[in-house]
Amino acid sequence: MKIVFLGPPGAGKGTQAQRLVEKHGIVQLSTGDMLRAAVAAGTPVGLKAKAVMDAGGLVSDEIVIGIVSDRIDDSDCANGFILDGFPRTAAQAEALDRLLAEKGTALDAVIELRVDEGILLSRMENRVKETLAAGGEVRKDDNPEAFRTRLEAYRKQTALLSEFYAASGRLETVDGMQSIENVAADLDGILAKVVAA
Ligand code: AMP
Asked: Hey, is 174 helix, strand or coil?
């Protein structure tokens, strides 16, 4: 099962992806996590990406497409994966279709979590509070200024992806303002159709 999750930062993609991972035995591929790991490890990719990420901007398509292309060849992806945070631009979406076609496969579902932007900032602030309370480390880009830049990048580039996938009849949307359980139920409904198809 190969799924793309679309939705602005804070829409709940990570939470829902984690649940589907456990339920379907697939892996969650978050380009944000992969890039943060590269930054922490001080790899050449990490060194290039760090400043852009700290400011909430987008890392180049070339870098991101490269890491995804390598990662989906790993054996743990054989059962399927959920892409979270990728694609973020039309060029990335086209590259993904090409990549999968070359490997003789294709996406099974593209699902957008729709949320009202007004609640996103408070969700991010709650995430910071919860992380601090648990003694964890807060993401550098979880501050109001970088968060606004991330939302702006989403509006300018990623929102267009809905149109890209809708144009080929592949877009499913879920109301991400519902409770976590109801969002999960809607996702299960969509994926049940995919499995049955
Ligand atoms: P995320 O954890 O998905 O919010 O990603 C954190 C940061 O990593 C983003 O603000 C970008 O700087 C970078 N990033 C993650 N995924 C991508 C992508 N597909 N294209 C470009 N930059 C990305």
From this structure: strand
Burial 7-28 (b: 16+ CB within 10 A, else e): bbbbbbbbebbebbeeebebbb
Say which amino acid occupies 190. I
- Which of 5, 16, 28, 88 has the most ligand 1 atoms within 8 A of CB, as the residue to mutate? 88
**How far is it, in rounded angstroms, from Cα 3 to Cα 177?**
20
Find out whether the beta carbon of 50 lies less than 6 Å from any atom of ligand 1. Answer: no
What predicted TM-score, i.e. pTM, was given to this entire model? Answer: 0.85
Tens of pLDDT, residue by residue over 52-110, are 999 988 999 999 999 999 999 999 999 999 999 899 988 999 999 999 999 999 999 99
How far away, in angstroms, is 7 Cα from ligand 1 center? 12
88 lines ligand 1 (CB under 6 A): yes
Are 183 and 176 within 8 A, CB to CB? yes
Strand order in the sheet with 27-30: 27-30, 81-84, 2-6, 109-114, 171-175
